[in-house]
Design brief:
The complex is a heterodimer of chains A (284) and B (377). In chain A, 37% of the residues lie in helices and 24% in strands. With 284 residues, chain A is α/β, with parallel strands linked by helices. A six-stranded mixed sheet of chain A has the order 7-8-9-4-10-11, sandwiched between helices. In chain A, strands 3-2-5-6 form a four-stranded antiparallel sheet, with helices on one face. In chain A, 40% of the residues are buried. By secondary structure, chain B is α/β, with parallel strands linked by helices. Classes of the chains: A alpha/beta (284), B alpha/beta (377). Strand 1 of chain A pairs parallel with strand 4 of chain B, so a sheet runs across the interface.
């Protein structure tokens, strides 16, 4: 359809997409404790994820970033604390309510976690097939739409995951996580294992999708470029709790030794200089 | 959650006004599609159609897709379409998730007969290449083995004894158990069937010859193919998957020398030992049942056994064992090296390894039977 045929009501500036109130909390975590054996990985962790934002989640390797994500997703048990998603306490949900919450979030696992026995198209259709009553024509069309949205060539649809490159696997997995049009997207190290060009493209893709689909994105990452390029806020995990959370410009002023090393270290410093040259503008 | 998608259509002077309301999201599944189809039906024949989206509470890519699909269907029939009242985020969606005809054709499968013939051809060809690669592997193994044979310090004794424990000692209980049971079952059937000819005492001959010549080594080989052959394929295969084999090669170590030879030697030592234990277990099982069902005292059983079999009967079984081990080890290693990057190829090669080893063990046993018959041993 062409623009001339569309009559658009202009939105007031500064309102997040999907008509959400700014500052609405999508995930609220309070006093989270997670441990294995007698070792506590999370000890009294508090974190809010706001609607319509891209939240970067950083921390040293082994600090428990993946453990946190897996706990929120319900893949790991917690010892104490509450996790609320869309205002519902995860523990208090019935099976049906829980399923509805799960349909509203999409997850991109680090290795993609595509089903190896299915083609890309079948992978994207798998959640639709299980949860929705759609005609096979619409299912096909929507799968192809998702493939186009994530920038995969259309002939990738009938390929198996083993025939795809690393970057294509990430894109295909992103397409699958978008299959049910979630509002909330969990990304576990989306750019790891990609070359800098591919990683940059993937950052742009996430930013574009976040704008057009009005997504809330929770992103675990090690990639400083991603943090600067697309994250609205960054949360820092240290010693089992979130020690700092805020826009990157705020974190740059932090006195915490780990954060200082992270952002002002050898790798961080170059990126920081580029950031300041750009007057703190988001790149995407 | 928003209400179900709804349409109020209203004929105006200019054409038709389609007021969409509710949630146009994928959660509504089939209802979403039905509403989209009725959009087309409602505007059919009008000169132009006005899509009023101001009542739409929620929209996602699926909703945008079906709305745009309806609009394009109408345009194709000469209806002018226009959108009013769309919220900004919905307009973005309509633009990004705009309808485009998609090629959904699956790769077409060839006709059944063609693919059947192609499959047969491929498997015959595969069997041929199996033989070639198996023989090539065996040749390389022998040549590497010979070079190491003249320099014994290079032999990996630790690895060999480790695998001897895993393949031999750890398999002992299960091998003893199944052979004891099989010996007992054969004895029981022997006593019942031979009783009809008043020949129950010949059960001892039956057990002695059958177990020592064939069953002991055959059952042990099949068990080892399933237990140790699969383990070899899985180990080599997962090392191949994680590039550990390549790492060995670039360290100027020969995977054949480091990984394969110790395993094969361990198998070739373990299998005769296990076969001996299997023979004994089966004879004990047979003797127990002969005592219980046929009133043949163990001392009588042993005396008859001495008359019934010679050393050659016992030797025929044991001679076969190292060859069985060689076949199992070679097939397991070849299949392990065939594993490619994916986890399912590992599973497939392990299955292949077990199936092929058991098949080859039985074929080899048949060949040995013909050979021993020909040399009257």
């Amino acid at each position: 359809m062409s623009d001339s045929e569309t009559n658009v009501v202009a939105p007031p500036a500064g309102v997040p997409a999907n008509g959400a109130k700014a500052g609405e909390v999508v995930i609220r975590v309070r006093g989270l404790k997670v441990g294995f054996g007698d070792r506590l990985v999370m000890d009294g962790l508090d974190l809010d994820v706001l609607r319509g934002e891209v939240l970067g989640f950083v921390g040293a390797s082994g600090a428990g970033k993946s453990v946190f994500t897996r706990t929120v997703l319900g893949l790991l048990p917690k010892l104490a604390g509450t996790i609320e998603v869309y205002g519902h306490d995860i523990d208090g949900l019935t099976a049906g309510e829980r399923r509805r919450v799960e349909q509203r979030w999409g997850v991109l696992f680090q290795q993609g976690a595509l089903f190896s026995g299915l083609t890309v198209k079948q992978n994207i259709q798998a959640p639709m097939r299980e949860h929705l009553d759609l005609s096979s024509r619409l299912r096909d069309e929507l799968a192809m739409l998702k493939i186009a949205l994530v920038g995969l060539p259309l002939d990738a649809a009938n390929k198996f995951p083993s025939e795809l490159s690393g970057g294509m696997i990430k894109r295909a997995a992103l397409a699958r996580s978008l299959a049910l049009d979630p509002d909330l997207l969990f990304l576990d190290e989306p750019t790891s294992g990609l070359d800098p060009i591919g990683a940059g493209e993937f950052d742009d893709l996430i930013a574009t999708l976040q704008h057009t689909l009005g997504l809330t994105v929770f992103m675990v990452t090690h990639d400083l470029d991603s943090l600067y390029a697309i994250c609205d806020r960054v949360a820092v995990l240290e010693h089992g709790r979130v020690v700092a959370v805020g826009p990157i410009s705020e974190l740059l002023r932090s006195e915490d030794p780990w954060i200082k090393t992270y952002f002002h270290g050898k790798r961080g410093a170059g990126r920081e200089a580029a950031f300041k040259l750009g007057h703190g503008k988001r790149q995407s | 959650m928003p209400d179900a998608p709804a349409i109020a259509s209203e004929r105006t002077a200019a054409g038709v006004r389609l007021a969409c309301a509710g949630g146009w999201t994928i959660d509504f599944g089939a209802r979403l599609e039905k509403q989209a189809d009725s959009l087309v039906a409602d505007a059919e024949g009008a000169h132009d159609a006005l899509f009023d989206l101001s009542g739409v509470e929620a929209m996602d890519t699926a909703g945008a897709w079906v709305i745009d699909r309806s609009m394009q269907a109408l345009m194709a029939r000469g209806v002018t379409t226009r959108v009013v009242g769309a919220r900004a985020e919905h307009a973005i969606l309509l633009k990004e998730a705009h309808y485009r005809p998609v090629e959904t054709a699956e790769p077409r499968a060839p006709p059944t007969l063609t693919s059947l013939l192609a499959d047969i051809g491929a498997s015959v060809y595969g069997a041929g290449s199996d033989i070639v690669s198996g023989v090539a592997f065996l040749g390389r193994m022998v040549s590497v083995g010979l070079t190491i044979f003249v320099r014994p310090p290079r032999w990996r004794w630790t690895s060999t004894f480790y695998h001897l424990e895993i393949f031999g000692l750890r398999s002992t209980p299960i091998i003893l158990l199944i052979n004891f049971l099989v010996g007992a079952i054969v004895a029981q059937q022997g006593i019942f069937q031979l009783a009809r000819f008043n020949a129950s005492p010949f059960t001892v001959d039956l057990i002695g010859i059958l177990v020592l010549r064939e069953l002991g080594v055959l059952l042990t080989s099949i068990m080892i193919a399933g237990r140790s052959g699969s383990a070899i394929t899985a180990e080599i295969g997962s090392m191949k998957m994680r590039e550990e084999i390549d790492a060995l090669t670039v360290m100027a170590l020969d995977p054949m020398e480091v990984l394969i030879l110790p395993r094969i030697l361990a198998l070739m030592l373990a299998l005769p030992l296990l076969t001996f234990l299997a023979d004994m277990a089966a004879l004990v099982g047979g003797a127990c049942v002969a005592w219980a069902y046929g009133d043949i005292l163990p001392i009588v059983f042993i005396q008859r056994l001495q008359d019934a079999i010679g050393l050659n009967t016992f030797a025929v079984g044991l001679i076969k064992a190292p060859f069985m081990a060689l076949v199992i080890g070679t097939i397991a290693s070849v299949e392990g090296f065939r594993v490619s990057g994916s986890a399912e190829s590992l599973g497939r090669q392990v299955t292949e390894s077990v199936v092929k080893s058991i098949f080859m063990v039985i074929v080899l046993d048949g060949l040995f039977a013909m050979f021993f018959a020909a040399v009257r041993y």
